[in-house]
Amino acid sequence: MTLHNTLQTAADYLVSWAHNNEMMTSINKTKDLIICFNKKVSAEDIPPLCINGNNIERVNTFKLLGVFVSSDLSWDYHVMYILRKVAKRMYCINYLFRAGVPVSDIVCVNTSIIRFVLEYACPVWHPGLTKKLS
Question: Which of 51, 55, 60, 73 is the most exposed place for a label (fewest CB within 10 A)?
Answer without folding.
Answer: 73
